[in-house]
Amino acid sequence: MTQHDAAALRPSSDRMRASVITAIGGPEVVQPGDVPVPDVMNSDTLVRVKAAGVNPIDGKMRSGKGNMLTDRVPCVIGGEFAGVVVQASYELAPFQPGDEVWGVLLTPRYPGAHAEYVACPFMSMARKPSNLSFIEAGAVPLAVLTAWAAVIDAGRVHTGQRVLIHAGAGGVGHFTVQLAHYYGAHVIATASERNHDLLRDLGADEAVDYSAGPFESALDEPVDVVVDLIGNAKGDRTGSRSLDARVLRDGGTYLCVPTGAFPEMHDEVAEHDRGLVASGIKLSPDGRTLETVTQLFEQGDLRVELERVFPLAEAGAAQAMVDGGHVRGKVVLDIDAERNGGS
After folding, report:
1. How far apart are alpha carbons 95 and 86 in whole angstroms?
2. Which of 1, 66, 100, 188 shows its CA 20 to 30 Å from the CA of 21?
3. pTM value surpassing 0.90
4. For residue 40, how many other CB atoms are within 10 A of its CB?
């Protein structure tokens, strides 16, 4: 594991730069701020953050959906990061000062990663892939573990299955495509036509342009598993339409990743009366799984696609971009951009 001078990376005071959610609202409530360095307790490891991903859940929390932040503002969010350990939780803990790591934070339970430092349980971290830069690595953990939860934990995808993935070129979607392909499925993914070459590069066997006509009509035969990264939130009822017999076979599995985007899911599944299985998806911040993901990246079986990199001070603009949808891959914050020229 790559080592750094941990002493040089320690906080120079008890304060740090961060992107602060000042109120419940739109991207305009995201402001640069100065907040306390997080406390390290129990199994926490203090990490100097080099880069942190921006995800749709950030905008949902910021805007008050699910009421996760209503009694916590001002606060710092951000669920994934890559950085360098500056303080271990104990002398023989798995990660020691100077180690390069990546990890996942359950925000708002923990202060988030859109900041110079995070305190993260070591069981929610893994060593950073040696072939990824900090910028690339910071955009991965939350998204890839969400994809893992859908493809492996819930979907149990395996060789010989047919899998349909909605929004396959997005942040979670492009990892979902790669994992389903890695585990042997015939992968069909929906995306705009501009992203079809990317989908094929990632391992999709078929790419469907959702704007060219009903995706139901584009399938030669029903699939075994649908991983839906849209639901019914956008008005075109992607979730409901995915339960159609032309799309999902009798006894098939439907997985809705944005859990609040299809609240009527179980009622509609019951109405179909075809033995369908349906579930929402929630990631587990499991460092052991993330270590497996590290190996997949180092073997060349996974890659990350970056749409754009923003400095920490422009976290509001980064969230606005993700809020708008149609992001190709991931958006990431370069925490070091202003601190020391991005080194």
Report:
1. 10
2. 100
3. yes
4. 17
